[in-house]
Amino acid sequence: MTFWIVGFDGEGPLVITGVDLAWLIIDDLKAQGKINEEQYQLVKKFDTDYDDARWAYEREQQGWCTGSIPPLAIQMAVAYGVTKEDLLTLIRQKFLLNTGVEQIIGTVRAQGIEPLIISNAWPGLPLQAAKTLGIPSCNVYTSGIQLGSDQIRNLEKQGLMWSDREIEARSELGLLQPHDEVKTFLEKYLPNTSALADAYIAKDAQKIETLLEQQEDIFASVKPVALQDTLRAMIQKQDMVMAAHNKARVLVKRAKEARIPLSHVIYTGDSKVDTDPIAVVNKARGWGIAVNCTNKEALQACSINIVVQHFELAASVYWAILDTDGRIAVEKLKEDFSSDELQIFTPADIIRDLDKVRKANRAVKEQLRAFYEKTLKTRAAISEATI
Asked: What DSSP letter does each residue of 258-281 carry, written as one string?
């Protein structure tokens, strides 16, 4: 049997749908009156239109990855006075793993494989997931400062794995100074991205060029230069973003280091930011799995789509793939394991009726969100009762 690499996105495949840290931060800022409705709508357009439209427009250039909303949310948090302690408190209040995901991780470990978490979230969330699941820090990739393996091993040797110290070492929070300058930058940057979103969607090359020149002026006006460099790394050059093609690069790098072919890599994601890693793995005849995914591009790129609310039911799918050394056919997986509670869609199913597949995924995502909201209310009631 050949060795395997098994990677998971953090939010969605491991942490339950509903725990989107970036939007938890932004919604909290709005609820507290720190940002107004106009600012909120600009951020929403950045997420739904600009980021994805630029990804689609520039994808062939291999120089852009959708998934900028997490670092943008961190910039907004800093601009409006949110601290690391505030973010960690928010994570503790909102964190919840998918029911039964421990069984999937256990199934992978039973084959002698330590899974990877490749998440675009601020480091505090994926490291909380890693701590809960016992996944070592050296197998966790997050947005923020990309630590080298030696730096992570040094933290582990000091007994600081998953600690606040590790979160701080990975986080860009300390680089975003002074706070007022970040706020001024965002007041100029977000309207620019709103206009760019429209230009990307219209594929208006001349307008795009003009707006990008204006955006360059916005970045160049930031002082000090160290802050300018950090902002560029976060949302222009995307060196601090762990999404799309950067996720794919992690898988390729880890496979090369371990001398494992990409045909022996499993990657599980649930959104557009997972399209590139899913596609890279699938094209190499590995297993790019889309779980509870409504995104068209990710579904069209995947080897198989799993729709499930209780994740322990999907553990058998991972076992079958690994136990057969990846040789099992997707049609056989569907025949053996698909049920009312575990729906499996093959690439042929997705080609035949994409709308039907997306509808099935959407229904389960809504069920998971409802369960999550109910769980939060129960937690709040218990907390109030104990005060």
From this structure: HT--GGGEEEEE-SGGGHHHHHHH
Please report where in the chains the tokens 């503790």 appear, as a residue: 92
Distance CA 157, CA 154 (A): 5
Edge-to-edge strands, sheet with 342-345: 140-141, 116-118, 5-8, 265-269, 287-291, 304-308, 342-345
**Residue 286 token pair:** 């590995």
Which CA distances in Å does 23 have to 31, 227, 308?
A: 12, 24, 24
Evaluate if residue 58 carries a pLDDT over 90. Answer: no
Q: What DSSP state is assigned to residue 185?
A: H
What DSSP string runs through 51-85? HHHHHHHHGGGT---S--HHHHHHHHHHHTT--HH
Is a pLDDT exceeding 70 seen at residue 335? yes
Short-list 354, 357, 346, CA closest to 304 = 346
What type of residue is 340?
D
332: left (phi over 0), alpha (psi -120 to 50) or beta: alpha
Q: What is the pLDDT of residue 134?
A: 97
Answer yes or no: is pLDDT of 236 > 60: yes
**In whole angstroms, how far apart are CA 294 and each of 46, 93, 120, 179?**
19, 27, 18, 37
Kind and range of the H or E element at 141? strand 140-141
Look at 19 and 270; give whichever has higher pLDDT.
Answer: 270
pTM for the full predicted model:
0.94
Q: If DSSP codes are grouped into helix, strand and coil, which group holds residue 290?
A: strand
Which domains, from first to last, does the chain contain?
5-10+244-373 (3.40.50.1000), 21-94+173-235 (no CATH)
pLDDT digits (tens, 9 = 90+) for 276-334: 999 999 999 999 999 999 999 999 999 999 999 999 999 999 999 999 999 999 999 99
* Average pLDDT of the segment spanning 260-267: 97
**What is the C-alpha to C-alpha distance for residues 240 and 246, in angstroms, rounded to an integer?**
9
Q: List the structure tokens of 77.
A: 């948090």
- Give residue 149's pLDDT: 84
